Amino acid sequence: MASLYEIPIENINGIGTKRGQLYRKLDIDSVGALVRFYPRTYEDWSNITGISDLTVGETACVKGVLAAAVSERRVAGGRLLSSAQITDGYSHLKLVFFNNRFIKSMLKPGEEYLFFGKVTASGGVKELVSPAFSKSSSGNMIHPVYSQVMGLSTKQIEAAVKKALAMLPENIKDPIPESVREKYDLIGLKDALFKIHFPESQKDISDARRRLIFEELLVLVLGLSSLKSLPEKESAVKLTVNYTDDFLKLLPFRLTNAQKKAIDDCASDMLTKTTAMNRLVQGDVGSGKTMVAAAAAYNCIKNGYQAAMMAPTEILAVQHFQTFEKLFQETDIRLRLLTGSMTAKQKRLVLEDIMLGLADFVIGTHSLISDTVEFKSLGVVVTDEQHRFGVRQRSALLSKGNNPHLLVMSATPIPRTLALMIYGDLDISIIDELPPGRQIVDTFLIDDSKRLRAYKFLMKNIDEGRQCYIVCPAVDNTDTGLVGAEEYAKQLKENIFKDYSVAVLHGKMRASEKDGVMADFIEGKIDVLVSTTVIEVGVNVPNSTIMMVENAERFGLSQLHQLRGRVGRGEAKSYCILVSNAKGEDAQRRLKALCSTNNGFVIADEDLKLRGPGDFFGSRQHGLPELKIADLAENINILQDAQNAAKEIMNDFSDKSNDGFKGLRAEVRMLFGNVGQQLN
Ligand code: ADP
Ligand code: MG
To answer: What's the confidence (pLDDT) of residue 420?
Structure first.
């Protein structure tokens, strides 16, 4: 099987350079890839509906005898219209075809055919327009339907797949060992490949799907476990004294019960367990996760270790650094900031301090995982807004210590099963309580026609001393056609908001510029901050009370909820205004869901239902590789089986000298791309 990936797609009869390019557009570059290009859906011709039972709008297969010869006539525009009547012995049905002069010779009166198509109605009479058909007694009854590109039809793909399957060797090596297949009742690979493309029954489809989904998830789970540095090992970081009470004295406010519980969970992990802490803290935006991180870091530092905290953006790292500077000002804790935009000299000094143990608590961005960073004795690693990081980045930071404790924080509630897969045996603390006095943010959905009123509303709030965010989906509008932050800020500055101070903030700006704008905003020198989603995570400016989002339909619900979480952080009433002209039912439903609840868990659930789990982990670079057939939200049961199987075979799989697992290892490498190379 593996070698088929080395045979270019053009080696298939009938596929030349030109057509080969079309296949490559579908990411099919080899015979192997074509065999693994599974149908999007099927047309089931075996499930026959009686003519009188047909429902308008549904796709159906009808078996019928042609009642009379096909009649032809020209209609408006010179189009050829062929029509025919069929009967199933009880009722009649009209068929219509356009511009196909072969219909008359292909459909013969008195003969029986199968017709497949969507039932429509014309003048109250049901009909099939241009249905597919075949002689009723011939061939396969279930036809695969493939995703197509312009110039390449599903029929053509089907024909090519047939040829590709014929190229499979007589005995292909199944990457899933027989023992696993037997235990989990899975059909063989070759069988599965034939059945997924050319099933003879619905059972064939479900058997094939189950086997292929299992395989994909097994590969995923094995890959993820291999990437993990094993948290079950005994930790070299030993805390002996619990300093939580000292920590509480530093706080300017009283913790919520949920915060306290999470802090105690961490302390008990680090003080009483022999293995390293491996804990996820989930809490809605604004629930006060930062203090949990601070407490864990404080405990480690007081016990003589270093702490590291990684944030996904520079703005957030700086903000955390400032929070901790204030919180720990009366202590002897030495804080350091490490970000990509620092000068080489600044970095060198910080790196030295980290290595010599002169830095106790290091806050930074991805820079923390670069090779040049070496800790003297790393005790705990905290990753903030975990969903923004990949598995790889987390393990890279962990590897800088001798199996240190791990605390991951996320505002995006991750469904339990998915969390288990990504983090392994991970303990979870949930902060389901907001600090007292926290505002419910009122959320409105408007379209362009109300924009002016929205601006006036912003002004009214600014006149009362507040600040506002306007978030755009893109930096500029050149190739997106969307509202671009830069141009938009300029327009607002020159027109509507000319008596106010407007600034722009986006990821393409230099770090020093960004810091400058952010500092001005925090100091209240800026009234309206036009921004991209760089402010999505964590930014905390309590005086800003309005979050206006342009092209709101462009964002995921969880992302919008994050954005909304930037306001409502102070005493004043806060608002979120979603601007969207999208009329689609889906878009409307999603945005309205956001208006109706402030509960991040409810929203995440809705997001999962509507958009699948992709949103939880972002694109490939942030987390999981792309899956071909498995769906993490839908295939939870198979996922559990695959997880169990992975546990059972993990030892053999990791043993590079065990040739029986070569195939699986190759698949892991393929799924994980570059990351997978490490598994070699
Ligand atoms: P998130 O969970 O979104 O990371 P933060 O940790 O940034 O939330 O906290 C949001 C804000 O709430 C911060 O300004 C923080 O100082 C404040 N805060 C946190 N905990 C409490 C508390 N128990 N009482 C009052 N304010 C709190
Ligand atoms: Mg936070």
So the answer is: 63
Around ion ligand 2, residues with a beta carbon closer than 5 Å are: 538
Say which CATH topology domain 244-431 has: Rossmann fold (3.40.50)
How far is 37 from 27, CA to CA, in rounded Å? 9
Domain regions of the chain by residue span: 1-46+143-171, 53-140, 178-229+635-680, 244-431, 442-597
Percent of the chain with pLDDT over 90: 52
Q: Is the CB of 393 under 6 A from ligand 1?
A: no
Pocket perturbation via mutation, ligand 1, pick of 284, 535, 540 by most ligand atoms within 8 A of CB:
540
Mean pLDDT, range 307-329, rounded to an integer: 92
- Whether the per-residue pLDDT at 1 is higher than 70: the answer is no
C-beta 316 within 6 A of ligand 1 = no
On whether the CB atoms of residues 573 and 439 are closer than 8 A, the answer is yes
Beta carbon of 594 within 6 Å of any ligand 1 atom:
no
Nearest to 202 by CA among 46, 32, 381, 394: 46
Residue 538's pLDDT band, with cuts at 50, 70 and 90, is low
Does ligand 1 have an atom closer than 6 angstroms to the CB of 543? no
Tell me if 435 CB under 6 Å of ligand 1.
yes
Residue 553 · residue 580 · CB < 8 Å:
yes
Q: How far is the CA of 63 from the centre of ligand 1 (A)?
A: 66
Give the integer Cα–Cα distance in Å for 93 and 126: 7
3 state SS for 440-502: CCEEEEECHHHHHHHHHHHHHHHHCCCEEEEECCECCCCCCCCCEHHHHHHHHHHCCCCCCCE
Residue 680's pLDDT is what? 36
The predicted-structure confidence for 589-620, as pLDDT tens digits, reads as follows 889 989 998 887 778 777 766 655 554 444 33
- Label residue 568 left, alpha or beta by phi (over 0 means left) and psi (-120 to 50 means alpha): left
User: Is residue 411 in contact with ligand 1, taking CB distance under 6 Å?
Assistant: yes
Q: Which option is the CATH number for 53-140: 1.10.1740.10, 3.40.50.880, 2.40.128.20, 2.40.50.140?
A: 2.40.50.140
Judge if 1-46+143-171 and 53-140 fold alike in CATH terms: no
Q: Which of 196-205, 615-624, 655-664 has the highest mean pLDDT?
A: 196-205
In 3-state terms, what secondary structure has residue 612?
Answer: coil
Ligand 1, atom 14: closest residue by C-alpha: 540
Least confident range of 107-121, 417-431, 483-497? 417-431
The residue to mutate among 251, 291, 569, having the most atoms of ligand 1 within 8 angstroms of its beta carbon, is 291
> What is 1-46+143-171's CATH topology?
DNA polymerase; domain 1 (1.10.150)
Rounded CA separation 133/116 (Å): 6
Cα(571) to centroid(ligand 1), Å: 13
The CATH number corresponding to 442-597 among 3.10.20.30, 3.90.226.10, 3.40.50.300, 3.50.50.60 equals: 3.40.50.300
Is the pLDDT at 252 greater than 50? The verdict is yes
User: Quick check: CB of 291 below 6 Å from ligand 1?
Assistant: yes
**pLDDT higher than threshold 90 for residue 234:** no
Quick: pLDDT tens for 436-490.
877 789 999 999 899 999 999 999 999 999 999 999 988 876 656 677 888 899 9
